[in-house]
Amino acid sequence: MLTCRPITEPEHLAHLQRQPSASFLQTPAWGQVKSEWRRESLGWFEGEQLVGAALVLYRQVPKVKRYLAYLPEGPVIDWDAERLADWLTPMTRHLKAQGAFGVRMGPPVVCRRWSAAQVKEGIADDAVARLGDLPPTDRDPLGARVVAQLTELGWQQQGAGEGGFAAGQPQYVFQVPLADRATGEPLTEEAVLKGMNQLWRRNIKKAAKEGVEVTSVRGAAGGVDEAALREFHDLYVHTAERDHFTPRPLGYFRTMLAALGAEDPGRITLWFARHEGTLVASTIAVRVGEHAWYSYGASSTEKREVRGSNAVQWEMMRDALAQGAVVYDLRGITDTLDSEDSHVGLIQFKVGTGGEAVELAGEWDLPLNRLLYKAFDLYMTRR
Known about the structure:
This protein is α+β, with helices and mostly antiparallel strands. The protein has twelve helices and 16 strands. It has helices at residues 9-17, 28-33, 85-97, 116-124, 141-152, 189-195, 198-210, 226-243, 250-263, 308-322, 344-351, 370-382; strands spanning 2-6, 38-46, 49-60, 67-71, 100-105, 110-115, 138-139, 156-157, 172-177, 213-218, 268-275, 278-288, 291-299, 327-332, 356-360, 364-367. InterPro entries: Acyl_CoA_acyltransferase, FEMABX, PG_Glycine_Bridge_Synth.
């Protein structure tokens, strides 16, 4: 019988290090980044053996000491278990005792995949509006089984927001496989490059011909390279103004690099693409075990013709391969394939990498106190 109780952050990290991978949103360090939430490391035990772990973030209801317990892209448990209730029941019992009126989690399981070629054809076809209109190249039986069990257990799937973006973590992502799924053998750089479309390969070559130089700065336990961080953030704010989104403050990234860098020297990296000394693109990459993510990106409006964004992405992929990653994750996309939709440009950029669109199980809620849960839902809707 499984039991669930708090564990120390070193115990939590040690468990994650024994796994092939886990989301960086489930690392103890991520709890330090989300400082406005109360954090807790939670462990599942078979007898005295730690067999599962989770980062739980508690968000308080205004004026009441009750919380939404949030497990972003987690928990890290055996999702292939025959009875998920054996894992989830002790978890919800503990969270309720901690004052949670509801639980939100994001099972890290895949439901469907679509190839880059399919997505490209879908965008060109006026009869296709969304990814779901296309037959997937792969349906994962694990994803279907998890969705069915959660529904039976009373969990409620949270729908994607406007344009297909979820309110929390993305349900649709774009990933580039760095290993053969059948054999597990790592791909060569040549094979990854060959999988890209002609435009991407041409842009990577052009960046090299134009003399674009790509460098990186790893996050480290000793602290953040402040000059490098400010250089990234200045370009990121410029990108936000051009593309009309609200940028995160400098302090957020300072905390992110310090916390994740202290947890593991290879966890987080700042990347810079320069042309003749001018910064033309900058990104943040994160890696946990065999999974590497492109987390944040920025690009200059000037000198776009030197293709700094393609150059930096390619160097990030090469580095992920060298570090033993089996997947390079470009994070969220919408499910829209409507060529008139403003979001479709993002998909087209990512499709050029030759990867695949991936549908995850999405985020699921379990109300523990229905009255408070409805009140909180209303409060979040009105914010």
